[in-house]
Amino acid sequence: MTEEVGELFRAIRAIEIGRDHPGESTSTKDRNYNLHEELADVMDQVLILCDKYDVDPDSLMAFSEEKLKKRFDE
Predict the structure, then answer these.
(1) SS3 of 51, please?
(2) Domain boundaries, the chain
(3) Whole-angstrom distance, CA of residue 52 vs CA of residue 68
(4) Cα(19)–Cα(32) distance, rounded to whole angstroms?
(5) CB neighbours of 48 closer than 8 A, spacing ≥ 6?
(6) Distance (Å, rounded) from C-alpha 46 to C-alpha 52?
(7) For residues 67 and 74, what is the distance between their CA atoms, to the nearest angstrom?
């Protein structure tokens, strides 16, 4: 999972900075596709962990939403 998160942050960096490495140019469409791909890879890993440890993904999302609501007083 660490590898997948690293790839996700490289994709985010490419969008935020505008490139992954100096001298490299990528179209916005390519960067957005890569972001979707890396987010999906991380999500796959989370779902695998949910299955392994018997955690319901829907209840996990509800838990996360409630935690954010409390944090931001909404």
Answers:
(1) helix
(2) 2-71
(3) 25
(4) 12
(5) none
(6) 10
(7) 10
Q: Which residue has the tokens 């935020």?
A: 16
pLDDT, tens digit, 9 for 90 and up, residues 14-55: 888 865 566 666 568 888 999 999 999 999 999 999 999 999
CA distance 34 to 15: 10
Whole-model pTM: value is 0.75
CA neighbor of 26 nearest in space, from 39, 40, 13, 41: 13
Q: In terms of Cα–Cα distance, which of 40, 31, 28 is closest to 11?
A: 31
| Torsion, Cα of 26, 28, 34, 36 (10° steps) | 180
